[in-house]
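Schema walk-through. Below, the input block comes first and the output block second. Nothing else is stored per chain. Lengths vary across the set, and this one has 425 residues.
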Amino acid sequence: MGQIEFGQKKVDQQQFIDAFSTLEHFGSGRSNVELDSQWALGIHQFDDRPFVQSAKRTSDLDEPIVIADAILDNREQLAQKLEIFPGELESLSDAQLIKASFQKWGEKCVDHLSGDYAFVALSPQEAKLTLFRDHIGSRPLFWFRREHTIGFGTALEGVIKVGGYSWRIDESVVAEYLAFPITPVSKPFFEGVQSVPPASIVRIYPGGEDTIQWWSPNTRTICRPVDEADAVALVRGKIEEAVTTRCDTSRPIGCHLSGGIDSTAVAMIAGLVLEKRSRKIDRAYTWSPDSDNKYPISSGRDERRYITSLALKLGAPLTFGKSTLNNILHQFTRPMEFESTLGVVDEHPITLEAGIHGTGVFLSGWGGDEAFSPHGHGVIGYYLISGKWRRALRFARNRYNSANKLKFLTKILWRELLHPLLPTF
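--- output ---
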């Protein structure tokens, strides 16, 4: 979290400290506030590994100040490019690596970073503030401008406290939220507060600002055959790299199990990584309810059989979901103006259980299976509007085995054709 003054006004240091204190409810950890007459920075670190840390300015006033919320997956590769020795790397935080990258490559440093991050670089001599967000926006980053005052941070409730301003609610965003309550809104609920888009850079100067998109998942046609083994090895390598990085902690590690390919891959890879370090998954969690008279194991494909089997292989005790009507009602009492979604109603009971059991790091592949397959949604619609009627019929028959039934066609007309083709407002 931070505040920058580009004009003659000085930072009200006590007001900034009070604003930063609103983040204490996130839990225990190490906090630090750095203050200057024209800028103020606050960081709160939750883990024992230095993921979240500012890279302090040295006596050289030409050096930028970098503050980051980051988990880098390519620390070793990045250190080689920066000519940092392995022994020195151990003492450097991810923020310090990002600062070194920014000093070497400038804004192009994002081309060399792999992981989850949101960071800000302040160049006092240039009177310039630059905000960066990773490829998919896994870390939020908000900012606002009130005349010559700039506020920014990764927690919205802290950002709106910077400077002591009052804020009006943006009714258009409220309407968007009410129309699609389980989908994250496009911008914060407060007028004048912006969100740095994923894979984007926002430059802020005394006289204005501009935004550039530094990466986009452009699709392309591959004209050569792709070896399946090579593709599998590449995807697996990237997943292993990310999971291994998140296992670099001394805290107890828990994992989410849904029975899908995403959480299964993450959990099993983490189990193998920890086994090499004479450790194991501390506890497994699932949204599914435990089997009892109310929710007996079904004779068909009951994912709880698979989940239980995976937990046994991991050697981890399994905690089942306890979502109830009260959990759903409690969701409406949470600060929606900050969370902006109702899509985590099942997660809250599990995260509470994880806190009770002392889990320090929670691994999940939630939604990751859609990186491999969109479950076929929209494919039929695409074939139909493209005039590929036979392919649409063949796809429907292969998927549902009943494409000739009128009742079936009526059922999928909305889900597979009309809904995917509706315009986005």
